[in-house]
């Protein structure tokens, strides 16, 4: 079930009304309703994979209890590694088996041996990377004695399966979400209105920005040999805005929907295209994943301790693993490697913790240095996105070789001026609201009501005007 679908437009109000009607009866009834509706939401994609989701939930729930009640460290380690192995095993089989089998066959062929690898003919269970990481963080936190095991299976299941975050995050932590699930929730009108406002902006980013950018980006990337270098640059820029509008739009809708139910999810985006270096970009892009790798991979590897060599090694590891997390393709690994290279100057010069504030905070305009560093960071990011979007490495190299040719200085064949103007307005609104939780959180609050509501109606009209067939969100494939 897509957030941008008629089905969800019916599903959400029904669950919302039922949820608050039973509020006075029992918190447990509310959580049961959330769990049942989450299972229904997931089953709408493919009901067969619902059993995999339930099995994963049961696995981590029971291993968590076994670890917490273990009488010695050996028993605790057994249950810990059992959970880790099965979780990563499922992820490996469904997501990475074919990649390793085909890569092995390709490597063997270099020695003159021909191997026909056996591959799996199954589709990737939607959201498997996200709910697996939910479970992994829970199990690791219990093993490290950071949290106690949750005894209520319903509450734990809602933590894993809460429908707004189930298929594309944000990747939640038990320390943040479980306490909210276990405490009584009362309806907060202001919070609900804020949630609706964030849903509205998320739909605008998805339908008006991302889906329109996708049309141009797909046309250019799918026929890259037919276009000049300048047009390929335009296509890469459109893809940059497509993936931002698509993924951050999903996150906005997820956070907004959760607020309707009195729950606060982790923020996942903080205006990353206004970053002044790559280190800042990764503090603002897919925040829940970046912090997950920081806490559960980078720091256990030693983090920044042990000298500059260890810091460089650990940084490359987490970025390459992050690339591999996104998909079983060498293009994602190169994308991760590139971002690791980009961040190296900050690591070596030890200024990767600079720019912790918002750019041009309290000001209307950035200074020349800030403008230059933002443009440079955006340009490097767009270049890396080429690998992320390309079908394979050959496709990526072909695009890059066309870009760095004499045709780079020709007029682009595709340059939709009207849509570029709309994109400019979008970025202007994002810039004005960059110090808020999301762009229109407080946009125009000082304006007269008629102007403020006119702005909201304009967004609604734009959403209906640009809406066509329901387009899936990019990160569903991960």
Characterization of this structure:
The protein has 478 residues and is mainly alpha-helical. The protein folds into 2 domains: 6-187, no CATH class; 190-276 and 355-477, no CATH class. It is 65% helix and 0% strand. It has 17 helices and no strands. It has helices spanning 6-21, 27-43, 50-68, 73-109, 128-143, 153-161, 174-182, 189-222, 229-260, 278-284, 287-298, 308-326, 330-348, 368-389, 393-403, 417-432, 449-466. Helix 1 runs antiparallel to helix 2 (27-43), helix 8 (189-222) runs parallel beside helix 17 and helix 12 packs antiparallel against helix 13. The longest helix has 37 residues, at 73-109. The chain is globular. The model has no long low-confidence stretch (mean pLDDT 90).
Give a quick precis of the structure.
With 478 residues, the protein is mostly helical. The chain has helices at residues 6-21, 27-43, 50-68, 73-109, 128-143, 153-161, 174-182, 189-222, 229-260, 278-284, 287-298, 308-326, 330-348, 368-389, 393-403, 417-432, 449-466.
Estimated radius of gyration: 23 Å
The whole-number mean of residue pLDDT values reads: 90
Largest sheet, in brief, is:
none
Distance between the termini: 16 Å
The proportion of residues in beta strands is under 5%
In sequence order, what are the helices and strands, one letter per element? HHHHHHHHHHHHHHHHH
Quaternary state reads single chain
How many individual helices?
17
Structural class: mainly alpha
Count every beta strand, where a strand is a DSSP E run of 2 or more residues. 0
């Amino acid at each position: 079930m897509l957030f941008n679908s008629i089905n969800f437009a019916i599903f959400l109000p029904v669950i919302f009304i039922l949820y608050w009607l039973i509020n006075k009866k029992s918190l447990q009834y509310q959580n049961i309703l959330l769990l049942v509706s989450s299972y229904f939401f997931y089953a709408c994609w493919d009901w067969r994979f619902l059993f995999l989701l339930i099995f994963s939930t049961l696995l981590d729930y029971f291993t968590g209890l076994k670890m917490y009640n273990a009488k010695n460290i050996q028993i605790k380690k057994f249950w810990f590694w059992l959970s880790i192995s099965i979780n990563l095993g499922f992820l490996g089989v469904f997501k990475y088996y074919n990649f390793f089998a085909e890569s092995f066959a390709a490597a063997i062929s270099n020695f003159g041996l021909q191997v026909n690898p056996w591959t799996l003919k199954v589709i990737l269970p939607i959201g498997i990377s996200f709910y697996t990481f939910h479970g992994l963080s829970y199990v690791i936190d219990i093993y490290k004695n950071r949290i106690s095991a949750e005894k209520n299976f319903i509450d734990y299941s809602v933590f894993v399966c809460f429908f707004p975050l189930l298929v594309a995050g944000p990747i939640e932590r038990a320390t943040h979400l479980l306490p909210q699930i276990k405490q009584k929730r009362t309806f907060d009108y202001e919070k609900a209105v804020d949630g609706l406002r964030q849903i509205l902006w998320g739909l605008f980013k998805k339908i008006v920005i991302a889906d329109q950018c996708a049309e141009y980006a797909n046309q250019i990337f799918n026929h890259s040999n037919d276009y000049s270098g300048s047009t390929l640059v335009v296509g890469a820029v459109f893809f940059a805005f497509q993936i931002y509008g698509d993924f951050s739009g999903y996150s906005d809708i997820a956070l907004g929907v959760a607020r309707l139910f009195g729950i606060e999810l982790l923020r996942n985006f903080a205006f990353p295209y206004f970053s002044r270096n790559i280190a800042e970009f990764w503090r603002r892009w897919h925040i829940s994943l970046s912090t997950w790798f920081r806490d559960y991979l980078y720091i256990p590897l030693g983090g920044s301790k042990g000298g500059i060599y260890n810091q460089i090694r650990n940084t490359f590891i987490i970025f390459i693993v992050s690339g591999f997390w996104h998909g079983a393709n060498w293009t994602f690994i190169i994308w991760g490697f590139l971002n690791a290279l980009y961040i190296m100057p900050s690591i070596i010069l030890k200024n990767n913790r600079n720019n912790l504030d918002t750019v041009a905070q309290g000001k209307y305009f950035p200074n020349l240095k800030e403008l230059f560093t933002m443009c440079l960071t955006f340009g490097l990011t767009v270049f890396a996105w080429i690998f992320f979007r390309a079908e394979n490495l050959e496709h990526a190299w072909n695009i890059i070789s066309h870009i760095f040719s004499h045709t780079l200085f020709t007029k682009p064949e595709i340059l939709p001026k009207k849509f570029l103007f709309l994109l400019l307005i979008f970025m202007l609104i994002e810039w004005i609201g960059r110090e808020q939780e999301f762009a229109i959180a407080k946009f125009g609050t000082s304006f007269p009501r008629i102007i403020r509501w006119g702005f909201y109606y304009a967004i609604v009209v734009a959403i209906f005007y640009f809406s066509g067939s329901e387009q899936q969100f990019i990160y569903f494939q991960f």
